[in-house]
């Protein structure tokens, strides 16, 4: 029976230059591998050691990249190791099988959203009306499923984020602040639902997960074992649960540690 490893990508396995959080002297910094180029510029990295660990993991387990990114944003990432059979994009809204979105899964997700939470248009209108151009750089809609803003973090009023979270909660939506992005995501749109579906299809007996943000909490709770890094929304909230290990590492070294833990658990706890 295979082991399924569902992992968030950004700030869990891959890191932008701003998120690396390297603290050692430059001469002792780990060698980095660029795994994403955007508009001809390097954007995301992992350590070379992490790249080898991910390659080993891809051979030992069903590795499922599990991201809030749109399909387009996901597909420009060039991860080391064997091509994953499954990938979860748009926070669970798209389940890619051999790189192609499964239409049945997407239809099922859309039906549950229509039934269980306020429509995207209402949230979009609220964001347009309440977010100030003084600190919003971009309004974005992702895959017609959820919305996010790119903001100037230093100018962003904390109170506004709190008010938005309460407003959204009452409409069946969740708010997550990650770096320069504020996400508004429907509560029924989850990484965990998509992970359960992949686990069913792959016949997985053991599920492992990792993530750093509030949008990963349901994924971590749904897995048999989970890890979170020492940085990010979950760490800031000191969030934990019985099957979750809170790691001390921050930044790109946390990514390396998480992959080490995935491999160790895959090799020792495989059913
Ligand atoms: Mg993340």
UniProtKB/TrEMBL annotation:
Signal peptide range in chain numbering? none
Reply yes or no: does the keyword Hydrolase apply.
yes
The molecular function terms of the Gene Ontology recorded here are: hydrolase activity
Instruction: Tell me the protein's name.
Output: HAD superfamily hydrolase
Name the SUPFAM superfamilies for this protein. HAD-like (SSF56784)
Keyword Hydrolase tagged: yes
Q: Which organism is it from?
A: Streptomyces viridochromogenes
Q: Which domain of life is it from?
A: Bacteria
Keywords assigned = Hydrolase
Cite the InterPro entries for this sequence: HAD-like_sf (IPR036412), HAD_sf (IPR023214), TPP-like (IPR024197)
């Amino acid at each position: 029976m295979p082991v399924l490893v569902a992992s968030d990508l950004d700030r869990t396995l891959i890191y932008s230059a701003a998120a690396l959080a390297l603290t050692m002297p430059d001469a002792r910094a780990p060698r980095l591998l660029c795994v994403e180029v955007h508009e001809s510029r390097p954007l995301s990295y992992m350590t070379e050691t992490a790249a080898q660990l991910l390659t080993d993991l891809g051979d030992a387990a069903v590795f499922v990249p599990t991201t809030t990114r749109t399909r387009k944003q996901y597909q420009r990432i060039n991860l080391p190791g064997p091509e994953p059979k499954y990938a979860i994009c748009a926070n669970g809204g798209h389940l890619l099988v051999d790189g192609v979105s499964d239409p049945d899964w997407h239809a099922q997700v859309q039906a549950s959203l229509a039934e269980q939470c306020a429509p995207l248009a209402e949230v979009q209108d609220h964001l347009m009306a309440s977010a100030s151009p003084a600190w919003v750089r971009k309004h974005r809609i992702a895959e017609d499923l959820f919305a996010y803003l790119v903001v100037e973090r230093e100018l962003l009023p904390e109170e506004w984020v709190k008010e938005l979270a309460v407003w959204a909660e009452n409409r069946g939506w969740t708010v997550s602040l990650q770096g320069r992005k504020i996400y508004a995501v429907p509560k029924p749109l989850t990484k965990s639902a998509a992970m359960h579906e992949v686990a069913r299809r792959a016949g997985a007996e053991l599920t492992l997960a990792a993530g750093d943000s509030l949008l990963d909490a349901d994924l971590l709770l749904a897995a048999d074992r989970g890890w979170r890094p020492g940085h990010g929304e979950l760490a800031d909230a000191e969030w934990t649960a019985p099957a979750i290990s809170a790691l001390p590492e921050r930044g790109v070294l946390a990514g390396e540690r998480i992959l080490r833990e995935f491999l160790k658990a895959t090799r020792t706890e495989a059913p």
